[in-house]
Automatic annotation (TrEMBL):
One of its GO terms (molecular function) is metal ion binding. Its EC number is 3.4.17.19. Keywords: Carboxypeptidase, Hydrolase, Metal-binding, Metalloprotease, Protease, Zinc. The active site is at 256 (proton donor/acceptor). This is Metal-dependent carboxypeptidase. InterPro entries: Peptidase_M32_Taq. CDD domains: M32_Taq. Signal peptide: none annotated. SUPFAM superfamilies: Metalloproteases ('zincins'), catalytic domain (SSF55486). It catalyses: Release of a C-terminal amino acid with broad specificity, except for -Pro.
């Protein structure tokens, strides 16, 4: 066997162990007994220690030095393995295990603190996590910018400076559009009523299938915070229900299906290799947001959904045109995952700025609750009244995901670029969407983006799919046109 073959055989085992660790995480957030948190933390810490040791095994360096890529797939595999090897080698095994153990336990503490609206109960473990992430960032940065080192885990090649420039271009036009919509004479109505959770779940399964989710290789469960987990032949998603808000369940499901079908549609030849998963969280988010918003909240698709809602829950009390406005209605609120398309990115930019301050040491974790509320008041004009509406609403920081939040907005930017290209290539898309069939669009995304897995670098993948370099302009143009029509601007 060649050095490359030896390396890939070793990598296959590491990838399989990583999938097992991911399955433990899914179990923890869905069906694990609450009292098992401490034991699960120990299990996750031990498994992470084993994975860390494999990722810095000296033989990897020898194999990398001797391996000769013979095709683009081998070249991409070597690029990913080299990057992981060099980054992981900078993080002491002690630190990797401590992070896995602490964040596993912190998930339960976050959930309890969120339920009790008690930030003070979560603050001590948050301080532990931030201290560990600062140490990790310093080790990974190797003299560079610590926050960029964390961001690179989720969006290779991105920097805080480049994202700040992109987000700076988004912010003023989003605020102007929000203010114009909320001040318009034409205002869509709310959806009122009670919607049985079991019926919501039945309809959400129908939507998942319509958007291409393969239930032979996946399942839907309930969780506090919807998420997708796994890759290849076992990709699971979760959703949540609210008896007064069926859109929360339905669109959370469509969103997670976007993530899940990306993983399910990657070329099977890449299974248990570095190419066998989405190339970055920004690209991943582009799929989920495009499924959820540009497709799922389009006038054509909501016309079909109006009929499904009527069949499932009874007459919603409005015609399909009004229903389209209701689905996309701008509204005041505190929760990122429930925010409308126009205001969503403002929620993300708030988190982006606060987590940079936490990692940079200019914000003490004990002061996060107050800092969050002050910033929210500045951006949205009102303050959260409890911690579950503020800094405890998201699970991400409790599991150590610093550098993750900006990929949500980057994913929206990528989605805007992809949607513009998709519309150009599929002029008859609305007819299919009106029949409840998003397959022309999802097939286009499968062939242009999803099948490639980690073969290309993130920005290169978007440029190959669209023919243009990524820019925030298509997203802004889409939002201004869509909401201008809804609100009569």
């Amino acid at each position: 066997m060649s050095a490359y073959d030896d390396l890939m055989a070793f990598q296959r085992e590491t990838e399989a162990l990583s999938q097992v660790a991911g399955r433990l995480g899914w179990d923890q957030e869905t069906v694990m007994p609450r009292g098992a948190a401490e034991q699960r933390g120990e299990e996750m810490g031990v498994l992470e220690g084993i994975l860390h040791a494999r990722r810095i095994d000296p033989r990897i360096g020898d194999w990398l030095a001797a391996a000769e890529p013979t095709d683009p797939v081998a070249e991409a595999n070597l690029r990913h393995i080299r990057r992981s090897f060099e980054r992981t080698a900078r993080v002491p095994a002690r630190l990797a295990s401590a992070l896995a153990r602490t964040t596993s336990v912190a998930q339960g503490k976050w959930a309890a603190a969120r339920a009790a609206d008690d930030f003070a109960a979560f603050a001590p473990v948050l301080a532990e996590i931030v201290a560990l992430k600062r140490e990790e960032a310093a080790a990974l940065a190797n003299g560079g910018a610590p926050y960029d080192a964390l961001l690179d885990d989720y969006e290779p090649g991105a920097t805080a400076d480049t994202l700040s420039a992109m987000f700076g271009a988004l912010r003023p036009r989003l605020i102007a559009l929000r203010d114009a919509c909320l001040g318009a004479d034409r205002q869509p109505t709310r959806l009122d009523g009670t919607f049985p959770p079991d019926a919501q779940l039945m309809l959400s399964e129908k939507l998942a299938a319509a958007f291409g989710y393969d239930f032979n290789r996946g399942r839907i469960d309930r969780a506090v915070h919807p998420f997708s987990s796994g890759s290849g032949m076992d990709v699971r998603i979760t959703t949540r229900t609210d008896p007064t808000d069926p859109f929360n369940c339905l669109y959370s499901t469509i969103h997670e299906v976007g993530h899940a079908t990306y993983e399910q549609n990657i070329d099977d030849a890449y299974l248990f290799t570095p190419l066998g998963q989405g190339v970055s969280m920004g690209v991943h988010e582009s799929q989920s947001r495009l499924y959820e918003n540009q497709l799922g909240r389009s006038r054509a698709f909501t016309g079909w959904l109006h009929g499904q809602m009527t069949d499932t829950f009874g007459d919603p009390g409005m015609d399909p045109d009004a229903f389209f406005g209701t689905v996309n209605r701008l509204h005041k609120g505190y929760i990122r995952t429930e925010a409308d398309e126009v205001q969503y990115n403002l929620h993300v930019l708030l988190r982006f700025d606060l987590e940079r301050q936490l990692i940079g040491g200019t914000l003490d974790p004990a002061d996060l609750d107050e800092a969050w509320n002050d910033r929210f008041k500045a951006d949205f004009g009102y303050r959260p009244s409890r911690a579950s509406e503020g800094c405890l609403q998201d699970v991400h920081w409790s599991v150590g995901l610093f550098g993750y939040f900006p990929t949500y907005s980057l994913g929206n930017v990528y989605a805007g670029c992809l949607y513009a290209a998709l519309r150009r290539d599929l002029p008859d898309l609305d007819a299919a969407l009106a029949a409840g069939d998003p397959r022309p669009a999802t097939d286009w995304l499968r062939d242009r983006v999803q099948v490639h897995g980690g073969l290309y670098r993130p920005r290169d993948l978007i440029e190959r799919a669209t023919g243009e370099a990524p820019s925030e302009a298509p997203l802004l143009e889409y939002l201004e046109a869509k909401f201008g029509a809804i609100y009569g601007l």
